[in-house]
UniProtKB/TrEMBL annotation:
This is Prolyl 4-hydroxylase, transmembrane a. The lineage of its organism: Eukaryota, Metazoa, Chordata, Craniata, Vertebrata. SUPFAM superfamilies: EF-hand (SSF47473). One of its GO terms (cellular component) is endoplasmic reticulum. It comes from the Eukaryota. The keyword Transcription regulation does not apply. The keyword Zinc does not apply. It holds the Pfam family 2OG-FeII_Oxy_3. Residues 488-505 have a biased composition (Basic and acidic residues). The chain crosses the membrane at residues 45-70. Residues 94-103 have a biased composition (Pro residues). InterPro entries: EF-hand-dom_pair, EF_Hand_1_Ca_BS, Oxoglu/Fe-dep_dioxygenase_dom, P4HA-like, Pro_4_hyd_alph, Pro_4_hyd_alph_FE2OG_OXY.
Amino acid sequence: MEETLEDFMEQEETKDSDEPSLSPYNSPFRSTRLHIQRSNVCSRAYFVVVMVFFHVYILNVIALLLYVHYNNGPGDLGSRDGAAVASVGESRGPLPPPAPGPRDLPVEDHSPSFSLPRIEGIRVGHVQRVSLVPDRTHEMKTLSLKPLLFEIPGFLSEEECRVVVQLAQLKGLMESQAPAPSHGQEESNQPLLSLSTEEVFSLLDLNQDGLLQKQEIISHSHSRDGTWLSPHNLRQILTGLEDCPTGMLNLENFRRVYDVSQRPGKQQNGMVRNQFKQRSKHTWLYQGLGSHHVLHALRNRVISLTHLPSALVELSEPLQVIRYEHGDFSNAHYDSSHSHSESTCTHTRLAGNSSAPGEVSCRYLTVLFYLTSIKEGGETTFPVADNRTYDEQALVQDGVDLTDTQETCDRGNLRLKPTAGTALLWYNHLSDGRGWMGELDEYSLHGDCPARHGVKWVANSWVNVDPDQQVQARYQRLVAQRHQAKSGMEEHYQPLSHSDLHQDL
Ligand SMILES: *[C@@H]1O[C@H](CO)[C@@H](O)[C@H](O)[C@H]1NC(C)=O
Ligand SMILES: *[C@@H]1O[C@H](CO)[C@@H](O)[C@H](O)[C@H]1NC(C)=O
């Protein structure tokens, strides 16, 4: 632009300089005047152009600052320093309150338009502050971008770690189901847990009124691998319940229904087990209404951390607590599954397509809590974290199997030493780019190195999401309807509660 201006001035000058030939006598004067005029006009134009640019620039900066301020400001008090736990693109809608009362649980957030925020990793080593509890903030450090993995030290206090371990011991642990190398295949048909029918009834009876309502069964429709009741059992119980004229089961009716569902040979185990090997013991701790306050607090902290709709987190699997004794391990695996049209998610099974033959775990993200520190071994390994490329074939190469944690733990890209109270958060799925859950993130492969010295306790909190947003919405509507239908009755059993309810852990 400057050049055009110069050119223009140049032209003016040549036009002018032709004239003096006609009147040579005033030529010196004219040339001086021209000179002055030229430099005047030139600097003014230049000045105007610079000032226009300058103002536009300043206005842009102000507009940008205002935009950032109003987008992050009011809703996000916890992350004031700008290292906001910001969510991507369209998920910028109003986020749900972090810790709602449990009673309004399934009623909200079941509109099909809700979306799944994701925390931004920024870069490996980036630290952002998050507000999880009223009296302090926590630091959250990005450990890898593939998968998106964070570490939050001090997520649980020492006391809370101890309580969770004690509750797990109180409830009793069972062998993790996938057989260890030394164990035979025939084991898989045996009942998981030697609970009496009365105990199962009591565990299912969340409000402890001596009757099983449909809602109570549905709320247990959780995980395939390891939950003490298989989805098949739950369906049988549900069918029995629907056959009952009262729509509820007392202990006597339950015994009849449950014994049928437990009969061997009737187990329809449609899942093909893969080669996955692990050795550990685990149990499940219910975290909802009436559970121990530490478990309840942990769930609310997960909601604050992930910024996910609270209903989604509250309808997810119970907390899984795992104990690894000397030599115990798990090979590298995925917590979630590729979505196939011929399988449904376990958690939405009752609302989903019951004619689909397979059933898989659908876990958007994992929050892993280290409940103890361990002197040696027992690291969590992510063998392909932030690898440049992922190639399934390259996992097993030249006789080296990167998923075999007993042999190749030291070759993984990322290994984390358990420290009591630290939480890890990672996304098992990518985003689908429209604010919902996308494909399984193949980099989220992880396993547990053998514990060498000491006992390792960890807990897993999974957030279940159905890749089909419609099915997830339908499931949440179903639970909400049950909840509302039940809430009329709620008044008369609510008072007889809390000490009894703690039985459920
Ligand atoms: C349910 O699954 C079957 C078998 O996979 C499929 O043919 C059918 O279209 C599915 N129905 C719905 C409503 O998704
Ligand atoms: C990790 O990245 C390297 C370099 O791109 C590649 O050669 C290797 O196969 C990758 N490993 C896996 C398991 O994909």
